[in-house]
Amino acid sequence: MPGQPPSPRTEIRRKPQRAHYDRATIEAIVDAALICQVAFSHEGSVHCLPTACWRSGDHLYIHGAANSRMAAALLAGECCVCIAHLDGLVLARSAFHHSMNFRSVAIYGRFEEVTDPAVKAAEFAAFVEHVSPGRAARVRPPSAAETAGTRLLRLPLREAAAKIRTDGVIDAEDDLALPVWAGVVPLGLRAGCPEPDAGCAGMEQPGLPACVAG
Amino acid sequence: MPGQPPSPRTEIRRKPQRAHYDRATIEAIVDAALICQVAFSHEGSVHCLPTACWRSGDHLYIHGAANSRMAAALLAGECCVCIAHLDGLVLARSAFHHSMNFRSVAIYGRFEEVTDPAVKAAEFAAFVEHVSPGRAARVRPPSAAETAGTRLLRLPLREAAAKIRTDGVIDAEDDLALPVWAGVVPLGLRAGCPEPDAGCAGMEQPGLPACVAG
Prior knowledge:
Two copies of one chain form a homodimer.
Chain A: E1 19-20, H1 23-31, E2 35-42, E3 45-52, E4 54-56, E5 59-65, H2 69-75, E6 79-91, E7 99-109, E8 112-114, H3 117-131, H4 144-148, E9 150-156, E10 159-165, E11 183-191, E12 195-196
Antiparallel strand pairs in A: 1-10, 2-3, 2-6, 4-5, 5-9, 6-7, 6-11, 7-10, 8-9
C-alpha cells in the first residue's frame, strides 16, 4: 500500500492490498482519462454525470457552459469524482473467481472556479493538448467571449485514493484441471479510422492522446 | 426527444435534443457496459465507485461481497448509477467547438437485494454470459457457499435518462477555411491478445462481449 489515506473516507478497506495513495499513481490514472464521473448532492438527490476532464499540476479540471446547473451545484458543496479504466477481463475456470483488471481513482473535495481570463485560456489550451497532442497551436484559440462564456472549475487532488488490480487468474486448486480456457483478455480504448470533416481529407492526421492506442 | 422524462430529476435541460427517455435506448446503453459508476451518500459524504454490472429484464444488477460496505449503504437509501461510453473525439478547427461523442445513462432509485439462491445462481450465470458469451455452461458454477457469500443487488431501470451525441464537427462558418484537420476520431473499447493462464495455451479462445471489438 504505497502512501497513507489522506482522510478516513478515502481509506480503501475492501482488498486494501490494491489501494494506492501516492500522488504519482493518482496522477497517472487521472492523466489517462478523457472523461470522469462527477457525483454530487443537489436538492436532496445524488447525481452522477460524466464530463470531460484533464489535469494541470495539483488539480483536476472540468469545464461547462456559463449557465451549467452542475457547475453551480458543484461550487455549492462537496463532491466525489471517479475515474475508472477497465483494463481486462479476468476469466477464471470457476464462475466465482471471475474478475476484472482496472485502475480507478476517487477524489473528494469541493471544486473552485477559475475566473482569470489568462489562466482560463492557458487551461483550455492544455485541455486541447490533452485530447490531441500538438493541436492547441494549430486551431483557432478561444475568443474573449468564448473564454468568458465557459466556466472553468478545478478540484485539488489532495484527498484522493487509487485502486488497481493487475493480477492474472486466481482459481482454486481443485478447479485448475477443468477443461476451459482461463486467462486475461486485455481491454483498452482504441481509436478507429479518423473521419475527416468536409475539406480535410488530405490534411495531416491529428495527434492521439497517450491513453488511446491508434 | 424520444419518450418523456420519468421524473423531474431525470430531465435533461442542457442540450435537450440529445436526451432519450425510451426504454430501448436506455437498455442498449446499459447492455454495452461492463462497469458502471454508483454514486450514493453515506455518513455525510457523496461517494462514487465503479463496479461491474449487467442487465436482466427491467433491472441493472451488481454484486458484492457479503461484508460490502457499499452494498449496505445502497440498500439504505437512494443512489444514482451512471454509465458513459466515450465514442469519439470531435476535433474542430476552433478550440471552442471541440466536443466528444458519447452515450450515457443516469439511473435513479434504490437497489433491492435478491436473496433467493436459485435466482441468484441464474443471475450470476447471466453475468458470466455478459462478460464472455458462451462461457457460463463451461465454467464451474458457483457452489452454494459461493452463492450465499455473494450479495446480489438490482436497481429498476424505471427512473432513467440517456444522453447521446453522435454528430460530426460543428464549426463556425468563419473557421471553415482554417488549415487544420477537423473531424471525428472514433473511440471504442477493444480487446488485446488473450493471455492464457498456465495450461490453457492450446484451448479454444473465450467469447468476447458484444460491446468489445476483437
